[in-house]
Amino acid sequence: MSDRKTLQVKQISGHSGAAPGFGTQRDLEVCKLVDTTICIGCKACEVACVEWNDMPFSPTTFDNTYQTMPETRWNFWNLIKFNEHQKEDGTIQWLMRKDQCMHCADPGCLRACPADGAIVQYANGIVDFQQENCIGCEFCVSGCPYNIPRFNPATKTVYKCTLCSDRVGQGLEPACIKACPTGCLKFGTKDDMKYVAEERAKQLRENFGFEKAGVYDPQSIGGTHVIYVLHDATDPERYGGLPKDPQIPWAYTVWKWLAKPVLGTFALFGLLGVCLHYVTVGPRRAQPQPPRKEDGHGQRG
Amino acid sequence: MASAVERFDDKARQTFDRFGRTETYQGELLRHPVYTRFLHWMVALFFFLALFSGFGIYLPWLFRWFTPVFGGGPLARAMHPWFGLGFVVFFALQMLNWLNPMKWTQADTKWMRNIKSVISSQDELEPPDTGFFNGGQKVQFWEIVAGCVVYLVTGIILWAGARTFGRWPVAISYVLHDISALIMLGGIFIHIYLSTIGEPGTFQAMTRGAVSEAWAWTFHPAWYKEVTGRDPRQACEEARRRGEFAER
Known about the structure:
The complex is a heterodimer of chains A (301) and B (248). With 301 residues, chain A is α+β, with helices and mostly antiparallel strands.
């Protein structure tokens, strides 16, 4: 939260009411654009991410693909997912997608998180985990449609891509963007990136024969602050399991924000009930009890 | 099966009676042997550990002042499943221990229909067919049995997490786990109240293991008749005539 202009807090998990100071400045949503059609799978972004975030080198897992490891880790937030997709005519399309936190406009992790201040969404769209407030319950994992949050058993807290909020807060682009040699990764305002992405998709459709080319910016979660240009936007699943219609479980909307505080209050009625019983009806005593004095008050024991 | 459980319970009661003492004085009856009391307090210990560490997961913003008792939020979260497991294990033993006295009978149905007059304390003595446990106690007992099943199933799903069981099972388990906890939280107030100031003389049943005869013929007349062979109402009247009043 170093820079007031871009890292303005928009929402805080487990916190009722508005975030202080929100809405007093011009809204500037940031966005990362990943053009999967010109990614060459060089993994410079993976290295840049590990370098910038000062994460220890971790052994990789070889699974007969070019992929560094099967999925992201708590200290490896940025992974190029490789997939050999067989087209209808029998030819192979080698797909590469940079997998990382999507920084959803409606973040499922933030909705699921019960801890005050463990997940914040900045006004610029970045969703950031604050590990000092995290309790490690991992509900965020079930809230996330992209399977992104990762538990660190050593600290018992959860980590994920920060969209380099520390760099963005200082007016710099994220580390992965800086490292990308092909221009596959771009960074700017959401409006600009959406425009560039749509132009590129149009170019792919009209000039390169990818009739189904399009932009991945799912509206079921209000859009994301990482968007993709795909050769075939009708089937994002083939890009390493990108969900076509990402959803947040209803349990986190209905239960957490409505029923949980209400029913929690009801449980306290048990306490209220027994207190009222004690002062109105009073305790039941083992019998026989000595006869009451005539001038005594009240009806029973 | 049933006899195997009984043999196990008998063995456990004998073993625990060798280590713990239960002293019953004149005018008193043995209510709970050492084994039962041990299980009860282990269940209570783990219940409150799980409850208080659970508070820190349920509403961290409200209980963040309290979670440092468990070493902070992440550690409270890490220990909560183990506390819960302790609770379920000891309650499972208690369930086996109490299978017989907790069997639902006609008298319990009658007792539950009559619950209004119990709450308003209209009758000085319980109905004569109220046995070792009354209907309300049995309802709470079986609620905890059901709650433990819910805790165990949903708890394992939450423990292993979305990466093992998938997102939706976790999200739904989270709701069921919470609802089960809220029901028990409501119930524990009633349980503590009735066993202490709500019905004086009850608490010693779980500490010393013995209760007064007056307590027995007042709250569990059929059990009193079973162990003494005397009519509870008559015994109460005789005590009244002799001027032997129960402790207040």
